[in-house]
């Protein structure tokens, strides 16, 4: 893979204060899942740790004002979710897979046997659900009609995406693998990038990478490596060329707009707090803005398409198992 380096420009000396659009409270002390409906008017939020399994809810909140629209109990919190082509949500918990009505969140189908455990990624294509756990060297497919499961071994820290009618799996060492939906044949290694710690694809099938080692594995512990300022962009279908952009700010997590025109990264402060978001135009990698969430909040998810960010902060007081969730704009006008 040929690598071309360049630097972004226009990053301010420090982030400005973000404009908070709404606030609400979500049960659970931490580890709340959050998914933005790409075409709808809602964000899905799961309750976090500290809530009894029987009481855990997945909640649909209005993007306009944060009010709860509907909710569902699944017996556990979703670890990952994805939309099917027909419009229903698929939600994977620790050991089960559910199909949910997109509007009401009512469970319409569930799979409870042979479901791969602890999925972190979920990709739908060709009548199959494909899952990966970031701590395991395996890629799975689930036939959504028969429930049959296939498993293919790759390497550690697998991330999986759909791109141009096929599966693309990226491992922590930078290996890029291609596979057909359903995993009827073994994945093929098609390219080698530098080590990565996060990945994304846009609506055109382009591959985006947070360049830098993700996890450090030592005999007695596993911990996250240092954040990186480098964004990797692979736009060609053959995966021959990699554009490596120094954004000037340290980050692990990021999101790219569906039209590939905007990238937003969750920047990491000197003490490790993920408390600000920097956004860039991908035509020239000029910074559009760098905005900081209010004190004490950690940014959980960003949407370059909606120009929104979401952050949480534990509620004050002892024995309180809940967080305040805020939605803020990714521009000074909100």
Brief description of this entry?
By secondary structure, the chain is mostly beta strands. The protein has strands at 2-7, 16-17, 20-27, 34-36, 42-46, 58-62, 68-72, 80-83, 89-92, 97-100, 107-111, 121-125, 128-132, 138-143, 149-153, 159-163, 166-170, 175-179, 188-192, 196-201, 207-211, 215-218, 221-224, 228-234, 241-256, 262-267, 276-281, 287-292, 298-303, 308-314, 322-329.
Provide an overview of this structure.
By secondary structure, the chain is an all-beta fold. The chain has one domain: 7 Propeller (Methylamine Dehydrogenase, Chain H), CATH 2.130.10. It is built from no helices and 31 strands. It has strands at residues 2-7, 16-17, 20-27, 34-36, 42-46, 58-62, 68-72, 80-83, 89-92, 97-100, 107-111, 121-125, 128-132, 138-143, 149-153, 159-163, 166-170, 175-179, 188-192, 196-201, 207-211, 215-218, 221-224, 228-234, 241-256, 262-267, 276-281, 287-292, 298-303, 308-314, 322-329. Strands 1, 2, 20, 21, 24, 25, 26, 27 and 28 form a 9-stranded mixed beta sheet that branches. The radius of gyration is 19 Å and the shape is globular. The model has no long low-confidence stretch (mean pLDDT 94).
Q: pLDDT under 50 segments (min length 5)? A: none
CATH fold assignment: Methylamine Dehydrogenase, Chain H
Q: Tell me the β content.
A: over 45%
The CATH class label is Mainly Beta
CATH architecture: 7 Propeller
| End-to-end CA span | 40 Å
Mean pLDDT: 94
What Rg is obtained from the alpha carbons, in whole angstroms? Answer: 19 Å
Q: Give the helix proportion (percent range).
A: under 10%
Q: What's the domain count?
A: 1
Summarize the main sheet.
Answer: 9 strands, mixed
| CATH homologous superfamily label | YVTN repeat-like/Quinoprotein amine dehydrogenase
Q: Report the strand count.
A: 31
Cα shape: globular
């Amino acid at each position: 893979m040929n690598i071309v380096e360049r630097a972004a420009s226009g990053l301010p000396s420090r982030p400005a204060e973000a404009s908070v659009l709404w606030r609400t409270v979500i049960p659970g002390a931490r580890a709340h899942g959050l998914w933005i409906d790409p075409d709808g008017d809602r964000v899905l939020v799961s309750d976090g740790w500290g809530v009894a399994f029987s009481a855990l809810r997945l909640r649909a909140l209005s993007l306009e004002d944060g009010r709860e629209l509907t909710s569902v109990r699944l017996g556990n919190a979703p670890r990952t979710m994805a939309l099917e082509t027909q419009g229903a949500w698929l939600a994977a918990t620790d050991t089960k897979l559910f199909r949910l009505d997109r509007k009401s969140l009512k469970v319409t189908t569930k799979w409870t046997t042979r479901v791969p455990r602890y999925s972190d990624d979920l990709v739908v294509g060709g009548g199959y659900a494909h899952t990966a756990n970031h701590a395991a060297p395996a890629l799975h497919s689930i036939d959504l009609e028969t429930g049959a499961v296939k498993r293919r071994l790759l390497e550690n820290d697998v991330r999986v995406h759909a791109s141009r009618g096929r599966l693309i799996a990226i491992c922590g060492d930078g290996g890029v693998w291609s596979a057909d939906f359903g995993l009827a044949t073994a994945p093929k290694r098609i390219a080698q990038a530098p080590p990565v710690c996060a990945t994304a694809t846009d609506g055109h099938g382009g591959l985006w990478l947070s360049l830098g080692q993700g996890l450090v594995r030592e005999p007695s512990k596993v911990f996250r490596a240092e954040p990186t300022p480098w964004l990797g962009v692979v736009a060609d279908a053959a995966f021959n060329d990699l554009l490596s952009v120094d954004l000037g700010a340290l980050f692990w997590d990021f999101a790219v707009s569906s039209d590939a025109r905007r990238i937003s990264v969750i920047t990491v402060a000197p003490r490790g707090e993920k408390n600000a978001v920097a956004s860039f135009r991908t035509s020239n990698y000029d910074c559009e803005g760098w905005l900081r969430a209010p004190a004490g909040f950690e940014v959980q998810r960003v949407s370059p398409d909606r120009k929104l960010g979401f952050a949480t902060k534990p509620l004050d007081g002892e024995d309180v198992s809940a967080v305040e969730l805020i939605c803020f704009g990714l521009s000074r006008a909100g």
